[in-house]
Structure formats: structure tokens, C-alpha cells
Amino acid sequence: MSHFRKQTRDALVTALTGLTTTGSNIFKAKASDFEPAQIPGLNLMTSADEWDPEVSAPEYDARDLAVEIEIVVKKEDGLEDLIDQIEVEVFDAITGDAPLAALVKRMKLISSELEVSDDQERKTGKRVLTWACNLYHDSDDLESLA
After folding, report:
1. In what helix (H) or strand (E) does residue 62 lie, and over which residues does it extend?
2. How many domains does the chain have?
3. What is the per-residue pLDDT across 77-133, written as a single tens digit (0 to 9) for each?
4. What's the whole-model pTM score?
């Protein structure tokens, strides 16, 4: 087993691999810029999690996990249309994935922010999708999801 965040990231990578537009261009916490062959692509990060005392019980802890998925595309005409298409593919893949649903009790897209780089070398645009994930783990074990 592994930490509940890693299990969630791995399940998301599986669900998002093979999308029509991004194919296998999905990365976990990619620190470097995307290479041309990696665009269009997705970058996945679990940015924060909080314990939810109102939902937790003695035998399990409820967690609210923030997941950010960056959609990265080449900066060109039609950039927003391409990003919107990829966002639809991501949404459909996440909401229709049974193995992911077995880990995460609920995922809700809570924000979507467009960023276009002015850097002439990077020449990319991206939209950051932030998802709120509700999950439960055993109160004495960060690896066992309840």
C-alpha cells in the first residue's frame, strides 16, 4: 500500500491516460517546462489536504484533498477551444472512472483558471483545474482507505 495521496494520484493518472487529445502526455508534479512533444499534456498535483472533523468518526478520518490538473497547450489561435475540449475529456474520464470512485467518495470541479505565458520561449497556455476530493482513511493508517 501507499499513502492515500499517492493512491489517488495513481488512480487519476490511470483514468486520464489515453484521452483523445492528450494521449499518454500526463505527468505527476512535473517541475520542468513541457517539451514540444509533451504538448498538449496534463500535469497532476495534490496540493493540500485537510482533516474534516465534522465527518470523521473514531474508526476513520475524513479528508478533503485538493487536486490540481494543469492542461498545457501550445499558445496559438484557438487555444481556449482546445483547452475546453481537453477539459471536457478530463471531466468525463474522472467522473466515469469506477476504480477512482472506489478510492474517492466525491470529486467536484471547484475552479478553473486560464494562464497564458508572455514568455516568448515557453509559448504555452494552460488552464488549472482544481478539484475537491472527499475520501476516508482508517484513523490509524494513512494507507488504508475506508
Report:
1. strand 60-74
2. 1
3. 789 999 999 999 999 999 998 888 888 999 999 999 998 877 666 688 999 999 999
4. 0.90
